[in-house]
Amino acid sequence: MKKSRVLVVDDSASMRQLISAVLCTAPDLEVVGHAADPLEARQAIKDLSPDVVTLDVEMPNMNGLEFLEKLMRLRPMPVIMVSSLTSRGGEVTTRALEIGAIDCVTKPALGDARPFGDLIEKVRMAATVRLGPGRTAPAAPAARGADAYAPDGRIVAIGASTGGVEALTAVLTALPPNCAPVVVTQHMPALFTRSFAERLDKLCAATVAEATDGAPLSPGRVYIAPGGGQHLEITGGSSLRGSGNPPRCRLREAPPVNGHRPSVDVLFGSVAKVAGAEALGVILTGMGRDGADGLLAMRRAGAATLGQDAASSLIYGMPKAAFETGAVERQLPLRRIGAEITAMTNKTHRT
């Protein structure tokens, strides 16, 4: 069995030891080296040619973001970011995922029974990704002005996981300022989704924020499911067209679904029940099959559905599962999805 070779980069010797100890329990992974800072890491990459790098976000001599930018420009390879679960850690990690990191894991808290519980799975997944030179988020088309667009009353629901930070940035920055209301579930840890929403709010013409319980859905707003302990659903009326009971966000504590909380299936399932044909479902890059059953429920309820195609997906897992179940009406490259959402929810163009 060929093992995937991993380089562990962290300025803390104890953290390097812990990460290595976790990875060494997997028979298909091999830790081939350690580095205490980006300068050591640069030489280790040249000498060892690892398949995957785990990278601390904040280190001496050159911070993790600077190093990641140089790496993605000069020698792109799969990188898993290791971050503290803090507001600062969330901000830096969000930026790292935009630059080109594959995924992130959080440093364990004191007394954590399963430190780095999902690290092995994420490193395995990263080892399967092949990156071309100069990988960056696809350039999004400029958002159309409000005068060229009128929302038709539909709700847009989007699900994403690994690679979703790049993908969602490309899609949401392409939407007009008065876009149809958009609800999003992206698999990310708590606090990271807040940083991600704040970052998107600065980049997008629409207003982007973490969803709050009871928030009414309104045009020109994007609602990101908070990471952590609750699922995002919608509840209330089925349409935005003058209903006395408009649809609203609902945050619900419940067990994980498909190993995730929040879960894309939970969001899509609620949209199918509440909005039916008055919705558009979109599934983007991600590992696993979360969202496939929910998107199929949306399509059976009369909603339009789109999926990201294999060529533009960092991980063609979730979109593939949804396509194979018959949930996806059309597959599109990422660069076209934002414009397609705009066209499909434009009152003037709806047929």
TrEMBL record:
**Signal sequence residues:** none
Q: Which GO molecular function annotations are given, in alphabetical order?
A: phosphorelay response regulator activity; protein-glutamate methylesterase activity; protein-glutamine glutaminase activity
The answer to keyword Chloroplast applying to this record is: no
PTM comment for this protein?
A: Phosphorylated by CheA. Phosphorylation of the N-terminal regulatory domain activates the methylesterase activity.
Modified residues annotated as 4-aspartylphosphate in this record: 56
Entry's transmembrane regions = none
Keywords, A to Z, come to:
Chemotaxis, Cytoplasm, Hydrolase, Phosphoprotein
- Whether Metal-binding counts among this entry's keywords is no
Active site per database record: 161, 187, 290
Report the superkingdom from the record: Bacteria
Q: Which GO terms describe its biological process?
A: chemotaxis
Q: Where in the numbering of this chain does the Response regulatory domain appear?
A: 5-122
Domain CheB-type methylesterase, chain residue ranges per copy: 149-348
Cellular component terms per the entry's GO annotation = cytoplasm
- Location(s) in or outside the cell: Cytoplasm
> Kind of enzyme, top EC level?
hydrolase
Name the EC number(s): 3.1.1.61, 3.5.1.44
Q: What is known of its domains?
A: Contains a C-terminal catalytic domain, and an N-terminal region which modulates catalytic activity.
Could you tell me what this protein does? Involved in chemotaxis. Part of a chemotaxis signal transduction system that modulates chemotaxis in response to various stimuli. Catalyzes the demethylation of specific methylglutamate residues introduced into the chemoreceptors (methyl-accepting chemotaxis proteins or MCP) by CheR. Also mediates the irreversible deamidation of specific glutamine residues to glutamic acid.
Q: Belongs to which family? A: Belongs to the CheB family.
Put simply, this protein is called: Protein-glutamate methylesterase/protein-glutamine glutaminase
**Species name:** Lichenibacterium minor
Name of the gene encoding the protein in the UniProt record: cheB
